[in-house]
Amino acid sequence: MIDYEKRLVEVDEVLKHLPDEEFRRIPQDIIQTIRENKHKSYQWEYDNHKKVTEQNLPNDTVAILSYLNTEFILTNEQKALMHQIHDFNENKNSKF
Q1: Contact 39, 6 (CB under 8 A)
Q2: pLDDT tens-digit profile of 13-65?
């Protein structure tokens, strides 16, 4: 459970660096849940000199951020494209 709580610290920190327009797309109850359940003493800092993909985040953190991105931030058109890419990759991998 502690690792999950630490991942929420990292997620919250990344979310703080989203443009306001994107951040507002995430429901407040989700943000509140993240903040209420994150580890109380673990600290992680976002490096402003690096892109989010260069932050060396654990896979669990990336998965949570990916979910939030897909569910709340992407436009419907972007979501459709992501699903096409996912389906393509699934089909490609199933052939091996």
Answers
A1: yes
A2: 999 999 999 999 999 999 999 999 999 999 999 999 999 999 999 999 999 99
CA distance 27 to 80: 21
Residue 35's identity, in one-letter code, is R
CA distances in angstroms from 59 to 7, 15, 20, 27, listed in the order given:
9, 16, 25, 23
Contact 5, 39 (CB under 8 A): yes
Q: Where are the domains of the chain?
A: 2-94
Angle at CA 5, nearest 5°, toward 86 and 71? 30
Q: Which amino acid is at 33?
A: T
Q: DSSP state, 70?
A: I
Six-digit token pair at 65?
């951020």
